Task: inverse folding
């Protein structure tokens, strides 16, 4: 029976460069399986369409539960089977996103959201989390260059400041799991630092 694979997650504010870093890590570690949240499987992709639709008015509690539902399906359908089969997974966002965005940004409480997501994932915790730290203003300027913002990206500065502060607090509370990367640095330097952390995590 193969050894269990490792779960590496990418976190950060919108516009922090997660997509660029994920692509770079796949060139360094081609055996990684890249998945995204919300999404990655049929049901979760449908939920993604709901939670990102700017035309919908979604209650914060409903939003938190929708993200958790999408996460539960992705974990059950793809993540756990991959890990059990010895495959290493790179996941663009995971439960820490909900702790920061819904727990802090929406004011629902980090611990309440933690409990919901522990249930949704069966207690699955990443082996390593790469947090791309970016100033909210910089993140938003990068966002706007990408095109029309989705429902969450339309939130104000105070919302993203709360999310960013929550990410910092999460990283400070679990320094063994989190690696904080300066998203304002040169992308090659960010990739090099991230690759070092991933290599250490994947080492037998």
Result:
């Amino acid at each position: 029976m193969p050894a269990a694979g490792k779960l590496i997650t990418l976190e950060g504010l919108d516009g922090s460069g997660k997509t660029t870093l994920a692509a770079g890590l796949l060139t360094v570690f081609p055996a990684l399986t890249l998945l995204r949240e919300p999404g990655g499987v049929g049901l979760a992709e449908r939920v993604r369409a709901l939670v990102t639709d700017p035309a919908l008015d979604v209650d914060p509690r409903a939003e938190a539960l929708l993200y958790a539902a999408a996460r539960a399906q992705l974990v059950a359908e793809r993540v756990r089977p991959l890990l059990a089969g010895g495959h290493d997974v790179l996941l663009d966002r995971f439960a820490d996103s909900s702790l920061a965005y819904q727990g802090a940004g929406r004011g629902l409480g980090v611990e309440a959201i933690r409990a919901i997501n522990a249930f949704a994932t069966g207690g699955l915790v990443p082996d390593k989390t790469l947090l791309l730290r970016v100033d909210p203003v910089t993140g938003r300027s990068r966002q706007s260059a990408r095109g029309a913002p989705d429902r969450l990206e339309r939130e104000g500065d105070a919302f993203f400041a709360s999310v960013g502060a929550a990410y910092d607090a999460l990283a400070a509370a679990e320094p063994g799991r989190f690696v904080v990367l300066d998203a304002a640095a040169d992308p090659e330097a960010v990739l090099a630092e991230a690759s070092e952390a991933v290599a250490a995590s994947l080492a037998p």
User: Anything to note?
Assistant: The chain has one domain: 7-202. The beta strands are 7-12, 33-36, 89-92, 128-133, 178-182. DSSP finds eight helices and five strands in the chain.
